[in-house]
Write a structure and sequence with these properties.
The complex is a heterodimer of chains A (337) and B (280). By secondary structure, chain A is of the alpha+beta class. Chain A is built from eight helices and 13 strands. In chain A, strands 1, 3, 4, 6, 7 and 11 form a six-stranded antiparallel β-sheet that branches. A five-stranded antiparallel β-sheet of chain A has the order 2-13-12-8-9. In chain A, a hairpin with a 2-residue loop joins strand 8 and strand 9. In chain A, helix 3 packs across helix 4. The two termini of chain A are 29 Å apart. Chain B has 280 residues and is of the alpha/beta class. Chain B has a single domain, classed as Rossmann fold (3-Layer(aba) Sandwich). Chain B is 25% helix and 23% strand. Chain B contains six helices and twelve strands. In chain B, helix 1 links the parallel strand 1 and strand 2. Classes of the chains: A alpha+beta (337), B alpha/beta (280).
Chain lengths: 337, 280
C-alpha cells in the first residue's frame, strides 16, 4: 500500500517535472548560445527542469521573485571588509562529490559574433557534483576546441582537486586537441598556429561532502571565477570570491593552460568552503566575473533573478560597454535544504 | 579612458608601415653581417607575420580582417625626386590598404627554413611579403605626410576604432627636413579611443641597442634622439602587455627601438585575452 502510494506520488511529481523539462529544453535552446553539444544541453535542460519543478511545485519560497538591478528596494549586499571573512573550514579541504540538482547556466558569444565562435566552454557532471568552466584565449589558435576538451575531461574526472589534477586533465585534453587538428596540407598560418597552441583558463568546482558537512572545493587556473553567496538577515553576502576578489584584479594576461606545453608550475589555486541550505555558487568567465565584482548590486541580482533575465542584462551591459564585450558564461547552483 | 577598444571584425584598426628604402640602408648593421635593407625587410616580414598570428583563430577559417595594413616605401629616384607609395607586390600591389586576411592568403612567396630545436631540426615555411630595396635618399617628411593622409582617411571612416598605429622602420637620416613637426601632426590625428600611435625603429649603424626605452641614450646619434622624441609613449594597456611578456618597461616607455627586434610591438595589440608570446 505504501509502495503503491509512493509510485502514485512519484508519477504526480514526474508529470509537471517532465513538462518543465520539455519547456526548459525549448527555452534553453534559444537562451543558451553554446554548450558544445546537444547532449550537454539536454542534461542541463533536465537539471534545470528538475530544479524549476522542485522550485515551483515544492519550494516556492527558496528563491525570491526576480528583481531588476535597478529596483531600489532590493536587499543590500553585505561585503565583508576586504573580503577578509573566510568560512570556518580549510581552503581546499577535500570534498567527495555527490549528485547535484538545480544547475542553471548560459553562455553567450561576444556581441556581433556567431554562436559557434564562442570560445568559452562549460560542462557539468550532475552525478559527481563537478562543474568545469574554461575561457579560451581569443588570440590563440584553436582555443575553442581546447577549452571544450578541458571542461569535458575535468567534469568527467573524479580525481581529487589538487595541483596534480591539472596535468591529469591536460594530457587527454591535449591529445583531443591535437587529434581535432590533424589534417593533410595546412596553410602556413595554421602550421604556425598549431605549433603555438591553444590557451585557456580552467575553473573546476566540486560540490559534496567535506569533513565538516556539505562543502565545495575549487581549483582555478586563470581568471574564471567562483562566487559563494549566502543570505543573511541584512541581505545577500559574498562569502568568497575565488580566485580573484576584486574587479581591479582582472587584466588581459591571466595564467593560461597551453595545449602544447606542460602544466604551469605556478598559478594553480585551490579553495573551499562549507555550504548551508540556501547558499548559492556562481561560476563565471572573466568578463562577467569582473562585472559582478564591480558593483555589489549586480551580485545580488545574479543570485536572485531568473537565469534568462541575467543573460539579457549581461548582453545589455556588453552593448552599453558597461562590460567588456567578451564571451560570457554563467553557471548557478543553489544548495537545497 | 583611451586605447581600451578591443579590435575585432566589427571594430577593425589599422597599421601603416613606413619602410625606408634609401641607399643609406645598404650600410652594414651593428653586430650583423647583413645590410640594413635586409634587416628592415626582415623586421617588416616579421611584424606582418606576428600580426597575422594575432588574427588567426582556428583551422576552419582563414585569419580574420582585424587590421587594415598599409606598407609604404620611401626613397628618392636618381633625380632626387621622392618615390613614396604602396610597395607590396603580386596580388596585393598598388592597394593603399590590405586586410590581414588578404596578407595571410597572398605572401610574395614561402621560403623553406629550418631551425635547430632540442627535438631535432624543424623545417618550416616562412612567408615573405617584401624584398629588400635600397636606393636614393630618405624623404621621411614626405613619408610622414603620406602616412598622415592615410591615417586621416582611416579616422574619418572609423572614428571609434582603436587608434591607428604608424610604424616607421628607418635609420632616420631624413634628407627632406626635420620630420618632428610632421610626426607631431600624425600623432595629432585621433579616434574617440585615442590619438594615433607613432612607433619608430632606428636601424642606424651606431648607437646602443634599446627597446621601448623611457630615456634617450647618449650613445645615439642626433637623429636617434629625434626618432626617440618623435615616438609615442606606449599606452598603459600596451605597457601592461609588454611587462607581462617580460620587457623591462615602465612609465614613459616609448614605442621606439634602436637596433632592436621590433616584432613584439604588434603582440601588445588588444585582440582579447593575450597569450603574450613571440616565437621564431
Amino acid at each position: 500500500m505504501t509502495a503503491e502510494l509512493d509510485v502514485r506520488r512519484l508519477l504526480i511529481d514526474a508529470i509537471p517535472a517532465a513538462l518543465v523539462v520539455a519547456l526548459a529544453a525549448v527555452v534553453m535552446s534559444s537562451q543558451i548560445e553554446e554548450l558544445g553539444g546537444k547532449l550537454v544541453v539536454l542534461v542541463i535542460a533536465g537539471l534545470v527542469g528538475i530544479g524549476l519543478s522542485s522550485l515551483l511545485l515544492r519550494r516556492p519560497s527558496v528563491i525570491p521573485v526576480s528583481v531588476s538591478p535597478t529596483v531600489a528596494d532590493q536587499p543590500t549586499l553585505v561585503v565583508p571588509p576586504g573580503n577578509a571573512w573566510r568560512p570556518p573550514t580549510q581552503a581546499g579541504a577535500p570534498v567527495e562529490g555527490s549528485p547535484v540538482k538545480g544547475l542553471e547556466s548560459f553562455s553567450l558569444a561576444k556581441e556581433g559574433a556567431e554562436t559557434e565562435e564562442n570560445e568559452d566552454s562549460f560542462a557539468a557532471n550532475a552525478h559527481t557534483g563537478t562543474i568545469a568552466v574554461s575561457d579560451g584565449a581569443s588570440s590563440s589558435f584553436g582555443s575553442r576546441v581546447w577549452s571544450r576538451a578541458l571542461v569535458d575531461v575535468a567534469a568527467a574526472s573524479t580525481l581529487p582537486l589538487a595541483p596534480s589534477f591539472v596535468g591529469e586533465v591536460m594530457t587527454p585534453s591535449a591529445q583531443a586537441w591535437k587529434q581535432h587538428h590533424e589534417a593533410g596540407d595546412l596553410p602556413w598560418w595554421a602550421v604556425e598556429g598549431l605549433r603555438r597552441g591553444g590557451f585557456a583558463t580552467l575553473l573546476v568546482v566540486r560540490i559534496g561532502r567535506g569533513r565538516e558537512g556539505r562543502a565545495w572545493q575549487s581549483l582555478a587556473v586563470g581568471d574564471s571565477c567562483l562566487f559563494h553567496m549566502r543570505k543573511t538577515k541584512s541581505g545577500w553576502g559574498l562569502v568568497r570570491a575565488f580566485p580573484l576578489d576584486s574587479a581591479e584584479a582582472f587584466g588581459s594576461h591571466p595564467v593560461l593552460l597551453s595545449s602544447v606545453s606542460p602544466p604551469p608550475v605556478e598559478g594553480i589555486e585551490l579553495a573551499g568552503g562549507l555550504l548551508v541550505a540556501g547558499d548559492i555558487l556562481i561560476a563565471a568567465t572573466d568578463a562577467v566575473s569582473e562585472w559582478l565584482l564591480g558593483d555589489p548590486q549586480r551580485l545580488t541580482f545574479a543570485v536572485q533573478a531568473p537565469i534568462g533575465d541575467i543573460a539579457d542584462v549581461v548582453s545589455a551591459a556588453r552593448r552599453s560597454r558597461e562590460m567588456v564585450n567578451d564571451d560570457a558564461t554563467f553557471v548557478r547552483y543553489v544548495e537545497r535544504r | 579612458m583611451t586605447y581600451e577598444r578591443r579590435v575585432d571584425r566589427h571594430n577593425p584598426s589599422c597599421l601603416v608601415f613606413l619602410v625606408d628604402q634609401s641607399a643609406s640602408m645598404s650600410d652594414g648593421m651593428t653586430g650583423a653581417n647583413v645590410s640594413r635593407a635586409v634587416a628592415v625587410a626582415d623586421q617588416l616580414n616579421g611584424l606582418i607575420y606576428e600580426l597575422i598570428q594575432r588574427c588567426t583563430k582556428s583551422l576552419s577559417e582563414p585569419p580574420r580582417p582585424y587590421f587594415a595594413v598599409s606598407v609604404i616605401g620611401y626613397r628618392t629616384d636618381p633625380q632626387g625626386k621622392p618615390v613614396i607609395g604602396p610597395m607590396l607586390k603580386g596580388a596585393l600591389a598598388d592597394r593603399p590598404w590590405v586586410w590581414t586576411s588578404d596578407l595571410a592568403q597572398h605572401p610574395l612567396r614561402l621560403e623553406n627554413r629550418q631551425q635547430e630545436t632540442p627535438a631535432g631540426v624543424q623545417h618550416y615555411s616562412l612567408p615573405v611579403w617584401l624584398d629588400p630595396l635600397a636606393a636614393g635618399g630618405t624623404p621621411l617628411c614626405g613619408a610622414m605626410d603620406y602616412a598622415g593622409r592615410l591615417v586621416r582617411s582611416w579616422v574619418d571612416q572609423y572614428p571609434d576604432s582603436f587608434p591607428p598605429i604608424v610604424v616607421n622602420l628607418s635609420d632616420g637620416e631624413s634628407t627632406d627636413g626635420d620630420p618632428s613637426e610632421w610626426a607631431s601632426r600624425v600623432r595629432g590625428l585621433a579616434t574617440s579611443d585615442g590619438s594615433t600611435l607613432l612607433f619608430n625603429l632606428d636601424m642606424s649603424s651606431n648607437g646602443q641597442p634599446a627597446l621601448f626605452p623611457n630615456v634617450a641614450n647618449s650613445s645615439w646619434s642626433k637623429y636617434g634622439h629625434t626618432m626617440f622624441a618623435m615616438s609615442s609613449e606606449l599606452p598603459s594597456v600596451m605597457l601592461t602587455a609588454a611587462a607581462a611578456q617580460g620587457f623591462p618597461v615602465g612609465p614613459g616607455s616609448r614605442g621606439f627601438g634602436m637596433n632592436a627586434d621590433f616584432r613584439s610591438v604588434v603582440t601588445f595589440l588588444n585582440v582579447g585575452t593575450s597569450v603574450g608570446h613571440l616565437l621564431r
